[in-house]
Amino acid sequence: MPVIELCNIVKSFQSGDNKRNDPAILDSVSLTVEKGESVAITGKSGTGKSTLLSIAGLLDRPTSGKVTYFGEDTSSFSEKKLASIRNIKTGFIFQANLLLEDFTALENVAFPAMISGLTANEAMKKASELINETGLSDRLRYYPSKLSGGEKQRLAVCRALINKPEIVFADEPTGSLDEENAIRVEEMLFDMVKRRDSTLILVTHNVEFASHCDKVYEIKNHRLNAV
Amino acid sequence: MKEAVKFWIKVKILRTRYLHRCFILIAAITIPLTMALIFTESMMSGIAEKFITVSDGHLQVNGKFSADDETEKYISRTDVVCSGPVLLYSKSGTASLLLKGVNPEYFTSDRLKHLRLNVLDSNDSSSELPHIIISSVTAKKLSLLQGDRVALLVMPNGTDSNKNKTVMRPVLCVVSAIYSTGYNQLDETLAFTDFDFSCGIFPAGYTTEIIVKAKYTSALNEVRWILNTDLPVSTWKSKHVSIYENFEVSRQIILLVLFLVIVIEAFYCSSVSSELVNDSMRQISIVKMLGLSPSDVRLWAFFSVETTVLFASLSGLALGLILSFNIKNILNMLSESVIETFSSYLLDFSVIVPYGRIFIVMSAMIIISSFFVFISLRRSGRIPILQLFTET
After folding, report:
1. Backbone phi, then psi, for B150, in 5-degree steps?
2. What is the pLDDT of residue B345?
3. Which helix (H) or strand (E) holds A11?
4. Stated pTM of the model
């Protein structure tokens, strides 16, 4: 059974006060992702890569079309169920690391585990072990403002993976990093995803990065094509 | 509540400056609120205590009354006194007083404590003259000292042989002692003299003052009926209706003022909660992406503010109680150094904590602020995750 199935996804945004839909940014996009696969979605800026990722990740709803998770149509899911899926089944990594500024590095990584039901102590212990894998054990008590871009992105990867999600969504995870840090984060992401047998859906404009995935797709003229 | 929500609340409260400001402000409001409640209650109770102990007793029987076995269990003490109105003349002025004739045993240790009267000097050189005990207020007004002579002008009460004539009878007395209850309104109207002397000048002025046992003071009307006497009986409250009503009105006004302060504070809390949500848009989007539901976010925002309000109120209450138990020292210090007006105020009162009223005020504070915060947080759960993309 596919992990995710997107069927004829159309997405258009309303603009102005007249509530009229603009031309679709995604038009009849379909995609099937199997468990353990890594899929890259490439394309030029503004072609709708991030929009497609947010629809696939249940952060946004399509204008029309169907998103299926493990064979279940998600269109009727309640907010509560969607929240639960985002916490347990999926993990997200964005170009801007989106760490919580009031939280320390350890707390940031532990937070999704607390949402899943672990106590603060259990979550901190689990997060600490995960962070140690990435070589940031001396940064546990640091706030994000005191960390470098590469360190923040490594923490974002840890946070996305702490609940061992079945699907990891990564939107340009190395886009704001220098080459050395980008390679480090890239290797770490692939390694951790593989070890957890998770599925990876990666949005990137970096062809070299995309080539490490099992399948590569490109969005062109509002449609998704296999490369 | 989810562990994550509790943790986020803790982080927000401990690490957010405007919540710290909110804490300080609410605690700073609660301290004077608590003190105002305790001060007014203690002050009113102190004044009532003065009137009851040295002026009227809890119940007054208009005549001579002695308790029987049945009624004695409700009564702590009975004193037959004889009193009437007099004018007191000195070289420098006049004072209109109620002169109360009492036996020496009237001055119990409790009454002496209230009167701040340590010694009753009965061996005065002018002992042939009737003795009179006046207050320091009257002494100051008439420029009198202990041992000075003073003229009493007795207002006849209609029991003279010639009932149709009003006869003013001046009597020379000696000031044997000066008392001060600390409450000027009482002091400026009351003087004491010997019971026998008083009986001579007020033949119809007998009253029995009854001090009721502490556990029955809240049921004076019931005790009044239990006395089972044909003589008219009044309570302290009915004798001093205006004072008692003033107390009640003061209590209501203070409560009203406190509620207005609480409403203003609740508005402040609602603006703090709006500020919290506005400042946390990005955080809210992130935690929703991580798996918190909109209801979790609303819970977080609500309890972040309300926990701050609750702890601030409790801290303010604790500090208010501590300061209130030292209020006499504070007032004494103020009266000596800054505000002289306090020196004419009642300063020796027992601190009474009106727990019921404090509970009502604190509950109102929490409930009203919860309502306003709840209203202001309705949109917090609706902040979309896609807020992230619009900001980055």
Report:
1. -150, 150
2. 58
3. strand A4-11
4. 0.77
